[in-house]
Amino acid sequence: MHLHQFQSKPNNENHPYPLIEITAEFEKALNLLENSSSHLFITGKAGTGKSTLLELFRNNTSKQVVILAPTGVAALNVKGQTIHSFFRFRPDITLDKVEKLQSDLIDIYQQVDTIIIDEISMVRADLLDCVDRFLRLNCKKKEKPFGGKQMVFIGDLYQLPPVIKRGEKDIFKNKYKTGYFFSAQAINDLPLTLIELDKIFRQKDEKFIEILNAIRNGTVNDGHLNTLNTRFNPDYEPSSDDFCISLTTRNSTANKINQEQLEKISGTLYCFDSLIEGNFESQNFPTEEIIGLKEGAQVMLLNNDPFGRWVNGSVGKVVQCNQAKENESSSVIVELTDGDLVKVEPYTWEIFEYQYDEGDSLIKTQTLGSFTQLPLRLAWAITIHKSQGKTFDRIVLDLERGAFSPGQVYVALSRCTSLTGIVLKQPIQKKHIFADWKVADFLTRFQYQLSDEKMPLEEKLRFLQEAIEAKKKLEIIYLKTNDEKSKRIIEPFYLGELDYQGKKFFGLEAYCFKRKELRHFRVDRILEMKEVE
Fold first, then answer.
1. Which of 276, 317, 443, 459 is deepest in the core (most CB within 10 A)?
2. For residues 97 and 90, is the Cβ–Cβ distance under 8 A?
3. Residues 193-250: pLDDT tens digits?
4. Average pLDDT, whole number, for the chain?
5. Which of 499, 492, 496, 467 is nearest to 478 (CA)?
6. Residue 510 contacts residue 491 (beta carbons within 8 Å)
7. Local structure of residue 21 (DSSP, 8 states)
8. How far apart (Å, rounded) are the C-alpha atoms in residues 154 and 406?
9. Closest C-alpha among 391, 278, 351 to residue 79
10. DSSP per residue over 105-173, as a string?
């Protein structure tokens, strides 16, 4: 696989990231995915292209790869399989229930090179331990973590967390420090390489990006909130031409808004039936089994058009409904936000199962079931959960009774391409924003460890001492304990024991050109540094 294959995307303005840039971290990720057996954790803020990276790799790899996700809908989005389905787990799987399969069923697990798990933030630690035990039981390298398979985890831990039911919490706490995948016992034995995609393609406004980053890791201050709350407008009612979408915390609220708005439109109600074949369970339906539409209804498109006219998450307005005739399938004409009129016809989603083809010695996908329907849903409102992974130009955020899980406000606000595209029904307060400190703790410790591997402490000290003696300026990337990265230009003056609020620590005293003052830095928290003119 050569990187020249990945230098561009279709150049159309509807794509969320037209002409996506292959950054150094993108290049590193693609190389490690294809040319190594390293275990990877690929993360990044919202809009950094994690899904695009996965698509690029899958479409071009020569490896035997399976792509898995924690839920049916997430698996549909990546054209993969659920974790439970692939490993033949029942919903109530526990370690003691993981079994060695009969010999005629294990070929696929022995032949796969790389197992990719997307949306890793929602994968529970106990489920990952079950995966580890299964692969050890059914693969040849039983003594190695995950049976010696290359494991790749993709996702943003600051977004939606794993679900642990109320009745499970006490039992869970006895065995695991957290519910997240990194608390799995199998991870302790796995040398993970961290790749953080840091270039944000969705938003361009640096101030808005700064606010989103602060919300993401729980470091938001009053200045951030004051700027954000300039978008507070409790009386705002979007017009039919605004293409504004309300994000809610509850399904019932989104359904109520959509039904009320649909009923306000006079005219014929057109009903479009779906076609369901094979094994396609209702909880995995990507849209309604029967869609009710009127001309003038606001909708969100749910697939990527092969001709690049729209993407999953594009918003538009129905201008014409055409029900199926004898020789013609049903369709609707939708006006997109840019004024383009597009014909939307039924689309087929497929539930896949990975199978090993002995004749070709290849892992292939077998379709188990399909769901055919117009690829859209009513979209005056959707839940924050269903908005994950999508990009909108205009949103109304209605927190109702507040956020109830870490990352919810971040997911909602980061869907929007700009601060001016946001309307807040309630002011955002600090109590609405809570990042899980356990995530920040894991990521900061991970970053410090990787930094020490790249440049051991002795080498850092020698580099800093030489810079002091030569009076050189340095550019450093500094990581605080809350997983907040900061790039600084400094001129170092002293390296040794320093004091902070009565506590002694080994650090660096330097003039910080960003703060325009002398500052103290802990050497172990300097992730990267280089000389600058």
1. 443
2. yes
3. 999 998 888 888 889 999 998 898 888 899 999 999 999 999 998 887 889 999 998 8
4. 89
5. 492
6. yes
7. -
8. 18
9. 351
10. G-HHHHH--EEEESSGGG--HHHHHHHHHHHHHHSS-TTSGGGG-EEEEE--TTSSPPP--GGGHHHHH
Q: Which residue has the tokens 């787990």?
A: 89
Structure tokens at 2: 């050569």
Question: What secondary structure does DSSP assign to 4-20, as a single string?
Answer: GGGS-----TTSSSTT-
Domains of the chain: 3-197 (3.40.50.300), 206-347+375-432 (no CATH), 455-532 (2.30.30)
What integer pLDDT is reported at residue 324 of this predicted model? 83
Query: Is residue 167 very low, low, confident or very high in pLDDT (cuts 50, 70, 90)?
Result: confident
In sequence order, the β-bridge partners of residue 81 are 68
Q: Give kind and range of the element (H or E) at residue 309.
A: none
- Exposed, middle or buried, 509 (CB in 10 Å: 0-12/13-18/19+)? middle
* pLDDT for residue 306: 86
Phi and psi torsions of 113, nearest 5°: -90, -45
Neighbour count for residue 381 (Cβ, 10 Å):
23
Q: What are 41's strand-pairing partners?
A: 153, 194
Q: Token pair 């971290």 is at which residue?
A: 25
User: Which of 165 and 14 is assigned the larger pLDDT?
Assistant: 165
Instruction: Measure the CA angle with vertex 439, ends 438 and 442; round to 5°.
Output: 85
> Which residue bears the tokens 């490690």?
32
The enclosing H or E element of 51 equals helix 50-60
Residue 81 contacts residue 352 (beta carbons within 8 Å): yes
Encoded tokens for 327 = 């020789």
Closest by alpha carbon to 458, among 495, 488, 489? 495
In the chain, the largest separation of any two C-alpha atoms, in whole Å, equals: 84
Give the C-alpha separation, 421 to 413, whole Å.
10
Q: How many CB atoms lie within 10 A of CB 90?
A: 8
CB 177 within 8 A of CB 183: yes
322: amino acid identity, one letter: N
- What confidence score (pLDDT) does residue 13 get? 46
DSSP string, 338-375: TS-EEEE--EEEEEEEEEEETTTTEEEEEEEEEEEE-S
Output the CA–CA distances (angstroms, integers) from residue 400 to 6, 432, 514, in the order listed.
Answer: 43, 11, 39
The token duo for 244 is: 């504004």
Helices and strands in the chain, H and E counts: 15, 25
Tokens of 53: 């990276």
Is the distance from CB of 146 to CB of 108 less than 8 angstroms?
no
Q: What pLDDT is attached to residue 129?
A: 96
Contact 163/122 with Cβ under 8 angstroms? Answer: yes
Q: Find the radius of gyration of the CA atoms of the chain.
A: 25
Instruction: Tell me the two tokens of residue 256.
Output: 């109520």
Provide CB contacts within 8 A for 236, sequence distance 6+.
396, 423, 425
Structure tokens at 512: 């910080």
